[in-house]
Amino acid sequence: MQKKDTIYIDVEDDITAIIGKIKGSKEKIIALVPPKRVGVLQSAVNLRLLARTATNEKKRLVVISGNSALGSLAGSAGIPVAKTLQSKPELIKPDESDEDGEDVIDGGDVSIGEHAGVKDDELDNEPDAKLSKIDDIDIDGNKTSVKKPARGEKDKKPRVKVPDFGMFRKRLTLMISAGVLLVGFFVWAIWFAPHAEVVVTARTSDIDIQTPITVGEKVELDTETKNIPTIVESKTQQDTIEFTPTGEKEVGEKAKGTVKFYNCSQSNPNPVTVPAGTHISSGGLDYITQSTVTVPGPTIGLSSVCGGTPNPGVSADVQIEAEEIGSSYDVSDDTSFSVSINGSLVAVSSSDISGGSKRDITVVSIEDVQRAREELTEDKSDEIKADLMEEFGDKIIVIEESFRVAVGEQKIEPKIGEEATGEATITVEMVYSLSGIAQTMLDDFLEAAIAEQLGGLDGKRIYDTGATSAEFSEFEVSKDKKTATVNLSVTGKVGPKIEDNKIRDIVKGKRYGEIEQELKSIDGVSDVEVNLSPFWVFTVPDDNNKITVKFELENNN
Questions:
Q1: pLDDT at 112 exceeding the cut of 80
Q2: 396-425 average pLDDT score
Q3: How does 247-256 read in b/e, with b if 16+ C-beta sit within 10 Å?
Q4: Cα(404)–Cα(478) distance, integer angstroms
Q5: In this predicted model, what pLDDT tens digit does every residue of 286-300 receive, in sequence order?
Q6: Which numeric CATH code is attached to 253-357?
Q7: Closest C-alpha among 408, 410, 403 to residue 383
Q8: Band (127; pLDDT cuts 50, 70, 90)
Q9: Are 330 and 355 in contact, with CB atoms under 8 Å apart?
Q10: What phi and psi, each to the nearest 5 degrees, are found at residue 19?
Q11: Could you tell me the residue ranges of all domains in the chain?
């Protein structure tokens, strides 16, 4: 058994309230129970409105009433009728005349608002076509049946269609919206849209400015001292590169041994002190003492060491080391050495001087490191320079010559001078920097420089300072690295003084022919172009804010 919803209609309820209750019901089958005096349901128009609402909401209506007139009207609207909530619903075809003689309101005769004069075919819901669609309505286990009129009987009342108020409201809303848009368009087109662009070609001459300037982040703009502040963009990047060491170095051991010193003085019997680091030599090879020693004075007697002089005083053994590496410093025991101090002293080896050796190895040289750093810089510089230039944007004039690469911390493996058995590596922190000047700053500086070179701007106007095409050369950083000097070269454009506002006052409210004639009469104007928009505009607006003045330059050197 299908669920149903029962709606009890009060005498005070109007058609709108009943439609709201139908829409608010959650059930697919709705039983309408009218009061004893059916009231609002006596109108065929209202019943067809209820039928239309139910169809739109995909619900089925059943009127619970024993009133034959109401049953006939409900049948005309395609709504089945049941005498009680438990009885079987029937769809009643309207008879030729009302059986109970009660007053019935026909929607075709109603004169209420938009329903006045509605024709039958405009409100026709075609109830006959719906008969097959309501056979499955179940009211408390009773299937709907259709009660057809006797053969030969004719419908008493004509069928009346209910107008679609929703569609009417949509059409009315669209018409109002279209009207508002149309009015808005005309307002915009007449008062807001018109715009004019006046392009004036002015005859100009070149003026060259070449001057050294001082730049820096902490510098303030000064046209007299030619100081211009700069903006600096920087980037720090750590890179590693392998390289092949090419340095050469001799390594080995120094020969070592001991000697004794002999004091062979014939006139001075006093002892002599030989300090550490004293050079002694044999066969052109130098050796160095490693400790200090005192040599006693000579005694009476002859000595072969001193060549017949008195017996020399003899020191203790002293450690010596060859000045250079290599086996050529190896000498045998009893080798005599000349002493660089006190000509009466003689040194004689008391042991073999040996252990010297030498071999050639490959090491990391300073030149190797410099080449590796340069390679790193060359590989990255162009790419990083381009990145830094993009950081400045369009309103900054870049000094490309200011691009610098500073070397920060670096790590070299193996270290400089150490033996390398294979490839070496260097990891370097590189700091890249690039300077630029704000175009507004450079414009201010160049305007002052051009005015100074011309001796004033009486009757003249600077149309282009040349800032955007400025060239820089010989960029040099100061010793304190706080400022830099650079040569600036630009070519400015100077012509007759033509004021923008004067142009606007001349052209507003006029057509192209008048504008061209008046503007070309101004000294220094060689050509005029006027662009009006939108396409329906034929005269320049009277509002100065809607007139754009642009200047194009024509050289007249």
A1: no
A2: 89
A3: beeeeebbbb
A4: 13
A5: 999 999 999 988 876
A6: 2.40.30
A7: 403
A8: very low
A9: yes
A10: -60, -40
A11: 4-163, 194-248+363-557, 253-357
